[in-house]
Specification:
13 helices, about 50% helix, seven-stranded parallel β-sheet, alpha/beta, single chain, about 280 residues
Amino acid sequence: MPFGQIVVGPPGSGKTTYCRGMKEFLTSLGRKVAVVNLDPANESLPYEPDVDINELINLEDVMARLKLGPNGALMYCMEFLEQNFGWLNDRLAGLKENYILFDFPGQVELYTHHTSVSHLLEELQRQEYQLVAVHLVDAHYCTDPGKFIAVVLTSLNTMLQLALPHVNVLSKVDLIEKMGKLAFGLDFYTEVLDLSYLLDHLRKDPFMRRFRDLNEKIVDLIEGQSLVSFATLDIQDTDSVSSVLKLVDKAGGYVFGEGEARNIQLMQSAMTADVNYMQYPLPS
């Protein structure tokens, strides 16, 4: 039974960087990893894909031939891939022993109401792939109450649409202090605590005040489902990547081998040793 991650999220959330960093981390643990690029707009990749949708269809070609804009062309590409699932299945056949990272496009509509991606995932599950959706969101949205509420709503919609074990992640959390001041502590945003407190901030905004009733209904909907929470991620921090991986493995039912557990312990011991070393000044 092949295991894998479906990496989704809005543009700029760090999906491709996540795939590269997660592949490097998993490889260091001894896990055999393959990366599948399913973003037809992503031609300059920081990793070597084992399968690349650009061999089947390319966004720029679709835009030129069909006179479509980027959003329409991207939807066409996903529909084309859905209709040609056999192409993808044939290329995945030789990767069944790998842990697979699927790098998906960043168009939000593909995960909220368009059906091609969800149909592709259903086909993969029929092939006995054990998948977990990893939904990345840029942590800078936490600095704007209105945007954060919108992000939580989008995350909830994506969870329901994809219908997979799901891990929401606030990416680039190491940069959050440079992006603006948070109204509350980070735990407020990761645990999606009482969003009514954010409504108080929105009421102070002259523009957002006009949508008070709408915002209240959205918050009621989110809190009524009580499904959304976030992990945090600094892709350059080994502990942070390890924490996200543990959540993903738990959600997907992946049990790592004794060798992986030993490698994680060695990595953590090495980092602890580095910290302890830096605490003491060099002898003069």
